[in-house]
Amino acid sequence: MSAHRRQPIGMLLSAPYAVFIAAVFAYPLGLAVWISFHKYIFTAPGVDVPRPFVGIDNYTTVLSDPAVRRSFLNILVFLVINVPLTVGLALLLATALNAAVPFRTFFRVSFYVPYVTASVAVVGVWLFLFSSDGLVNQVLGSAAPNPSWLINEHWAMPSIAIYVTWKQLGFFILLYLAALQNVPKELYESAAVDGATKWRSFRSVTVPGVRPATTLVTLLAIITGANLFTEPYLLTNGGGPSGKSASPVLLMYQRGIEQGHPDTAAAIGVLLVIGVLIIAGGQRLLERRQA
Amino acid sequence: MKPRIPLAALAALTLVAVAACGGGSKTSAADAAQAHGPINVWLSNNAQEVAWGKQAVTAWNTAHPDQKVTAQEIPAGQTSEAVIAASITAGNAPCLIYNTSPAAVPNFQAQGGLVPLDDFADGASYVTARSGEAGAQYKSPDGKFYQLPWKANPVMLFYNKKIFAKAGISTTAPPLSTYTEFLATAQKVVSSGAAKYAILPSPSSQFFQSWFDFYPMYAAESGGQQLVVDKKATFDSPAGKAVAGFWQQLYAQNLAGKEAYNGDSFADGTAAMASVGPWAVAVYKDKVDWGVVSLPTQAGSAEDQSTFSDAKNVAVYTACTNRGTAWDFLKFSTSKEQDGKLLEMTGQMPLRQNLTQEYAAYFTANPKYKTFAAKSAHVVEVPNVPASVEMWQAFRDAWSNSVIFGKEDPNQALSQAATKINDLVK
């Protein structure tokens, strides 16, 4: 007997979400792939314009564009900094917040507030902190970089990566906190009986115990990071200085929406999806081997 | 958590395409041009313009109860142009938008979203009669008008008198006429500590930011040339290089800021000067004791020198079925009476010939606007060419890399940008 006959109510209940996924993700994704192989512009309904198949022309156009290549390199730099930082800090802080520390609720809320606050408002605070005359440079004095963080070609992308880590940490801490509830207390007790230090207990009990959550956090951090848009748009003047913090999605917005070239924008998007799948697949393979 | 996956970015892009599947009906252009009935219009979200729009709509609706006009502000979005482009694709654009950027017109036209005003019997003649020769700048390459030149905000230079006084600079005749004078004044402002920066136009890489640093000064320096003339970039020239060299010095000496500013740097006193249009008169009325002069040129500014128009126009959109009413309302809302009301309520300059004579009483009562009115006879528009936004982005990228961040020789950057732009607009 097939599954849907056995669980008709289950099928019924999951149908709305399946339809949602099909309509909002699957169909547009398919259409985007189609657009990326055609010469395409958005037109008013009823306007008949030729949309010829152009093979891989859109892909060669974007791959031969130094700005696009630079944006992919930028996002790689971003991921190399952001993902390990996110995973490490989220796990450490979640472990700390899981222990009986004073003001635990206050700290949990504090870490979560940046995540739920609108980016535009939070970016304002970071501009105040990291501008030339900002608080950070005043503390650092002569050790502050020149040009300052957000207009420094070496520091702009790392600054964004740190900002995004901070902004999203609250959500990932929550994921780890939930996972920590599933680590059996007996394991910690056994480790203590065996004379394990807190650090050893963290390495040998906590880290393996939350491995599924680590996989999820890593994947989500990679996916979220690859879709970076708001931060370079607002924090570094639209991907500056000189495109050193431009992201592929920012270029997709410029090319597809502002300049009316959805075909090349779609090609950038498809390349980005492929890139993310490769990175996520590699990460998954690595984790399996380690496990 | 809403995972911002690349799929989501792709989905957003393609949803615009999907939206095209719904709405919109094929209407013959000739029939639609004669059709009358209710229409919708969109207004900019500027409070004064909304107030003006509401009174215009009320006045029209009182006289034409059978052709009701409904007005609303442009829906919120990343930019008005992105919202308008999406509404064209979805087939739910209104009949008229009183905030159509001339730089976006070529894209909207390519989308099939705009009705040529030449479809109306008196379309082209109305534009010419109202705006005179200046109206010709708004013609598309096919010789038709897809926009009605509505209002300009000629860009001039505001200076903060308090800061100038603190720096020991004349507040009545400040030396700002030539590049040399401007640089000396700027150095005085900053070295005296009167203000952090002499001037702080947005250093952002958005395509339109060059309209507020390079383009007004280029219009002045080049004797009113557009960025592109006859499908050729004009700025790889002594005038373009002079303007780029001037700004490069301002940035290199930290007289202009390279970082985004969170707020209004002129109102806050962080910058002593700002390039602004007449809208600034009302905005800074109670905040800054200001003076206004023409933008500097290498040889010295003159009263009749050109500047950038910063115009916003009105277009009729193809989703409109009652285009006869749209055209009648457009003429009503740009009549001498309504233009006068626009001037009174917003301080922005209708793109109408003989402005100072037509509204002499207003300018006598409001002398602060007179300088801008005089300048509105010498405005230069963005060129109406295909790939307009792409062209401005190419220019901005070159400007940003060379002039603002000093990573490249400005002359070389301008030359490369000109080659790229020639390819784009040919």
Summarize this structure briefly.
The complex is a heterodimer of chains A (291) and B (426). Chain A is mainly alpha-helical and 291 residues long.
Structural write-up:
The complex is a heterodimer of chains A (291) and B (426). Chain A is mostly helical and 291 residues long. Helices cover 73% and strands 0% of the residues of chain A. Chain A has 14 helices and no strands. In chain A, helix 4 runs antiparallel to helix 11 and helix 11 runs antiparallel to helix 14. The longest helix of chain A is centred in the first third of the chain and has 33 residues, at 66-98. The radius of gyration of chain A is 23 Å and the shape is globular. By secondary structure, chain B is of the alpha/beta class. Chain B folds into two domains: 29-153 and 310-380, D-Maltodextrin-Binding Protein, domain 2 (3-Layer(aba) Sandwich); 156-308 and 386-425, Periplasmic binding protein-like II (D-Maltodextrin-Binding Protein, domain 2, 3-Layer(aba) Sandwich), CATH 3.40.190. Chain B has helices at residues 6-19, 29-34, 47-63, 80-90, 105-110, 123-131, 161-166, 179-191, 214-221, 238-252, 265-268, 279-283, 323-333, 336-346, 355-358, 360-365, 370-375, 388-404, 410-425; strands at residues 39-43, 69-73, 96-100, 148-152, 156-160, 197-199, 228-229, 232-233, 271-276, 290-293, 307-308, 312-316, 349-350, 379-380. In chain B, the strands form four sheets. Chain B has a six-stranded mixed beta sheet with strand order 2-1-3-12-4-13. In chain B, strands 6-9-5-10 form a four-stranded mixed beta sheet. In chain B, strands 7-8 form a two-stranded antiparallel sheet. In chain B, helix 3 links the parallel strand 1 and strand 2. The longest helix of chain B is centred in the N-terminal third of the chain and has 17 residues, at 47-63. The model of chain B is unreliable at 1-5 and 15-26 (pLDDT under 50). Chains A and B meet through helix 2, helix 6, helix 11, helix 13 and helix 14 of A and helix 1, helix 4 and helix 18 of B.
